[in-house]
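Handout for the seminar on molecular recognition.
Each group receives one record of this type.
Step one: identify the two inputs.
Step two: read the structure output and locate the region that could contact alpha-D-galactopyranose.
Step three: write two sentences on what you found, then compare them with the reference statements printed after the record.
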Amino acid sequence: MKEKLLNEFARVYGDNKDVRVYFAPGRVNLIGEHIDYSGGKVLPCALTLGTYAAARRRTDDKLRFYSMNRPEYGIAESMIRNYKREDEKDWTNYLKGVMWAFEEEGMRLESGMDIFIYGDLPEGAGLSSSASLEVLTGFFLCDLFGFEVSNEKLALLGQRAENKFCGVNCGIMDQFSVAAGRKDHAIYLDTSDLSFEYIPIHIPDAKIVIANSNKPHALNESKYNERRQECETALQELQKVIGIEHLCDLTEEEFETYQAAILDETRKRRVRHAVYENSRVKKAAEALKNNAIVEFGEFMNASHQSMSADYEVTGEEMDALVQAAWQQEGVIGSRMTGGGFGGSTVSIVKNSCITSFIEKTGKVYTERTGFVADFYVVEIGSGPVLQ
Ligand code: GLA
């Protein structure tokens, strides 16, 4: 891959003198959905699929961007310290947003750069292609300009770029799992204080299979921000009767006792998802530590049901894809992963059944929805690296 990127870089920019090549992964969340902005616990892992950058410093202030995934855009140009969000060149916003966040933090970029990007992660599939690009950018800025930044800080700067520059009010899970990924481990992250633990994933007779629904998710951002708002309102209502800082500080029993303080039935269901999902993650993490994979799969299934009925972030197509998976032989668990309203599902499938799982799940899904899903049998990878 490194050779290929260096050659492509030279083709686009004329030569590849002083170019360095970097990689940052995408992520899949095994369980703990839509609770990373409510102080909950989540259990994502980094993938071996992700985003590559070939980059070098320039002697002037110019920034040049090229993406092999968007050749139709050609080379996009801008300048350091003149970072503007441009909706028509949307993918460059993630890079410019991170540069802006670094400079805000006092890390001055002393020159422009030539940057070449290539990703093998399906975009808009709920596998954090944007967080991958953000953390990748932070990582190569550190290398090219000599900044010392911890993984946690890289994640926070990526999140700041996404929230403040790109205008998506995401939580910390995606950037954190990309920055802190570890091969063959899930990251058991407490989003209330960013403490975390690596849990080895040792499932010799099964694999993680991702299915991209290929359903375009046009409403994604507005619905995401709407869920966040509902949670904030419910938190204020609950804080009148119980001293909590985050929704996920509530135990299941406390939720049942105090739920009358939430003055709207929809908001009550949102909080019920957050509270029960958080306790499911804790139990699922224990199950994973004990290699109790069947039990882990049951928590995944319950997580999907809660996202569908209470949090309402799945939609017809994602429900159809998960239901099709549940019917198949050798499926240990299956659920929607990521922000929702489209995107991907994650399933754990016995090795001997993977081929039939892909064929039959795909067939049922297409019959029910008309969309064609893409399947990926994935490996758990590590955080950003210099190639
Ligand atoms: C998106 C956001 C994350 C998280 C998930 C849902 O991926 O970027 O912060 O909220 O949705 O779990």
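Reference statements: Residues 29, 33-34, 36-37, 170-171, 173-174, 338-339 surround alpha-D-galactopyranose (CB under 6 Å). The longest strand covers residues 44-57.
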